[in-house]
Design goal:
By secondary structure, the protein is α/β, with parallel strands linked by helices. The chain folds into 2 domains: 123 residues, Response regulator (Rossmann fold, 3-Layer(aba) Sandwich), CATH 3.40.50; 67 residues, Arc Repressor Mutant, subunit A (Orthogonal Bundle), CATH 1.10.10. It is 50% helix and 14% strand. It has 10 helices and 6 strands; from the N terminus they run βαβαβαβαβαβααααα. Strands 2-1-3-4-5-6 form a 6-stranded parallel beta sheet, sandwiched between helices. Strand 3, helix 3 and strand 4 form a beta-alpha-beta unit.
Length: 208
């Protein structure tokens, strides 16, 4: 069972998401909080696996909020209406495993929670598309990525799994994992979401 804590200052959001997630057999909302302070208390009390966190709570800095909740055995999934590149980058740098837009369908919310709990990252498709489109031309170093690694990275940014990337490029999933590890090492990234954010900043997602 994946234990989830919701931190959002809007009661209707807390109630709505709780109702949606209660339908999932493998997900349990263990608590909901309206502020960072209350959320941190709830973390201590309930020990959630995933924190679904509103990035723009009153009187707080989004990146600092993420860092407050991120832990070795606890994943933060940002849940927000804001989709600017800078918000995404700062949240990921702060330790977020995923970035989910409010208004996402129930199935996507549940899928995102499962992915970050499983050690993967998650970016809303609209966010991933925006990051790719915003990078039209390379702005600097290629980061020493090979053409194949850049191809893999673009598919990671599009939200494809290792298996799907392997099928797309006609290579084995093991080879994809090798390329993804090399990409992480070269970019200094800890996870897929961070790799995409860093690559976008450096202009590495362009097809040229």
């Amino acid at each position: 069972m994946i234990r989830v804590l919701i931190v959002d200052d809007h009661p209707i959001v807390r109630e709505g998401v709780t109702t949606v997630l209660d339908r999932e057999q493998d997900i349990e909302v263990v608590a909901a909080a309206a502020s960072i302070e209350e959320g941190l208390r709830r973390v201590t009390e309930t020990g959630p696996d995933v924190v679904l966190l509103d990035l723009k709570l009153p009187g707080t800095d989004g990146a600092d909020s993420v860092a407050s909740f991120a832990g070795e055995r606890r994943s933060v999934l940002v849940f927000t209406a804001y989709d600017s590149d800078e918000d995404v980058f700062r949240a990921i740098r702060g330790g977020a495993r995923g970035y989910l837009l409010k208004g996402s369908p129930a199935s996507e919310i549940a899928r995102a929670i499962r992915q970050v709990h499983g050690g993967e990252s998650y970016l809303s498709p609209r966010i991933a598309t925006t990051l790719v489109k915003d990078v039209i031309r390379p702005r600097g170093s290629s980061g020493a990525l090979s053409p194949r690694e850049r191809g893999v990275l673009r598919l990671v940014a599009a939200g494809l799994s290792n298996r799907q990337i392997g099928e797309t490029l006609s290579i084995s999933e093991r080879t994809v994992k090798f390329h993804v590890t090399a990409i992480f090492n070269k970019l200094g990234a800890d996870n897929r979401a961070q790799a995409v954010a860093l690559a976008a900043e450096r202009g590495l997602l362009s097809s040229h």
